[in-house]
Each structure stands twice: as C-alpha cells, then as structure tokens.
Amino acid sequence: MGTTLRVLQVTARFFPDMGGTETHVYETTQRLNRSTDITVEILTTDQSGKLPRKEVVAGTAVHRVAAWPRDRDYYLAPAVAAVIGRGGYDLIHCQGIHNLVPPLAMTAATLRGVPYLVSPHTGGHSSQVRNTVRRTQWRLLGPLMRRARRVICVAEFESQMFMQQAGVAADRISVVPNGVSIAPLGDEAGLGPVEPLVVCVGRLEKYKGQRHLVRALPHLIELVPDVRLMLVGKGPDEEELRLLAHRLGVADRVQLTSIPPADRQAMSDCLARAGVVALLSDYEAHPVAVMEAIALGRPVVVAPTAGLGELASAGLAQSVADPTDPAIVAKALSAHLSRGSGDLPSSLMPTPDLSALPTWDGCAQALARIYRESV
Question: What are phi and psi of 145, to 5 degrees?
Fold first, then answer.
C-alpha cells in the first residue's frame, strides 16, 4: 500500500436511483475524499444502459458496469470482478448484500488477495417469499461475510442478526449509524407554521407501507378535515396507490411526487412543511429520511418494526401498535395535526437531544478509522 489508501465502494445501485444505501454512499464518499490519506471511488451498475460509464459525482469517481436481467432486482454484473481485478485497490467496501453483485465483489477480492468490508444495509421486500428466505440468504452468505475484515451495521438489531444468522464474530462487527444532513431551509419553507400535511418518503413499494397511510386517510379526514397526504418517491406501487386513493374517494388529498436524491435542500424543505412524517414500513434498518425529519424537529410516526422500532424505543419517534388498522393510524397521526405544531402535547412530541444525533461527518470519520485498521 502506498501513502494513499485506495478504496473501492461497491454498491449495486447509486444515484440517480433513490434509496437509503444510495444516500449513504453519496454522503460518505464525498467526505472520505477530503481525507489526505484516503481516496474512494464507487463501482455500481447500470441496468438501463443509458447512464455514463464513468463520471464524477460530488468529487467522487463513479464507474458503472452493465447488469442483467434489466427488469429484476436480483441482477448480476460480471464486469464487477474485472474492475476489482485490474483496479489496484487496497480495500474493497461492499455496500449492501441483497443481490448477486456483493458476493461477486467479495469473491473477486478474495481471489485477488484484497481485504474487504461489508455494510449489509438490510431492507425489506414486497415479496413475502423473498422475505421468508432472508434468513437462509444470510446463512449462505456467512462464509463470505466471516472473511470480511469488518461487517459494518447501521443499527444494533442488524449486528445481532448477523452474529446469529451468518455466524459473524462480535469482534468483527461495528455499528455505524447513518448520519443526518440538513440543508438550511429555503425561502419556500420559511419559518412559518407547518401544514396539516402527512409526509412519507420512500420508494413506492408494497412493503414500505404507503398503502396503510392512504387507507387511514378517510378516518384522518374525520379528525382533521383539511389534512393532506404527500408520498415522496417512485416505484412499482405508484399506480396501485393512485387507484386506491380513487376508490377511497381521497384522490384530491393525496399527492405523489419525487425529489432528486442529491437535492438535500428540497428534501429538507419538504420535511419542514410536514405536520407529521410517517413511515409504516414492514422493515427498515436506519431510515435516512426519518432521521432528517427528527433533526428538523418534526414528529415522526412509525411502524414498530426493526430499525423503526429501535428509533421509537429511543424516544425519537412514536410507534403505532398495528400499522394495518386505519383507525389506529389515523388517531396516531391526528394527535400531531389537530393543533398547531407549537401546541402539541409534550408526550406526543419527542424532544430528543439533537446534538446526540449521528452526523454524516461522524459516519465518514468512523469509516475512515475502520479503513485504516483493515489494511
């Protein structure tokens, strides 16, 4: 290894795709590249065949290789092995483990004698079959994960899961939460009162739980007559969500929109307008948008699952006992909307110590330490 540590972060998806892993990679790589002794590049895939093969994003070199099949999320990208083989990297960092790209990267690194790290970034799936086989998937990945110099989890429950299901030793696991990056509020957000608006940020997929919010809306209107729902994201469930809103007679109250993933200003402004931010997902590890909402002082209502439940247990959010019950969801949301944001009951407005929230700077610094210790 020379004086500069050359690191390749391998991620199956990156901007312009939107998601928590993509945001994590974007935020950490630009900060790591400010180090004097570390240079980080990104290797990702392009299923569309339309994106640049190489470009620089926020000061980080991004390499893209083709992936197949183009209409599935379990795709393979054979060129990943070739890039690792000829790149001369000192360390490989696999970001995510959900498809065939990370195991290929780990195998290629092993064959080349290059040390590697793994950040699982676990998530849910709309297919119950796929969710059912997750335990088997982690067990099969066990040998590769146990060879990693470090498995870097974003939450405590995730670290326990990989110790138990993949056999990773406790001393090989680190917990480094996602950070929070809040842009200064724009002129449109201002400092005025928030709106009777429920905001949900996330890919539009069944397991993300946007349907629960749409189904709760008729009940919520009875409690808060001028309430509206904004779903921020794209995905395969978009048309079904529109049809559901029409069937329930609330289409005029539901706005489906999206924000470019790198536009943190627009995301901050959107969250700042919300009377309450909600995420009723079946599974989240450490959701970035929820953390941003908490940092902005917005009340957050979540499902009592995985990383969301962990946030609720820490007093950072309010969980609902049954996210599939429209009346229960409506009651939980209405408590944050029925009065002005400055007049909410203290028991329903978590007041966390914002100085204790993780930051992207801290996340990048923790990764830098792990990088230096791993070579």
Answer: -70, -35
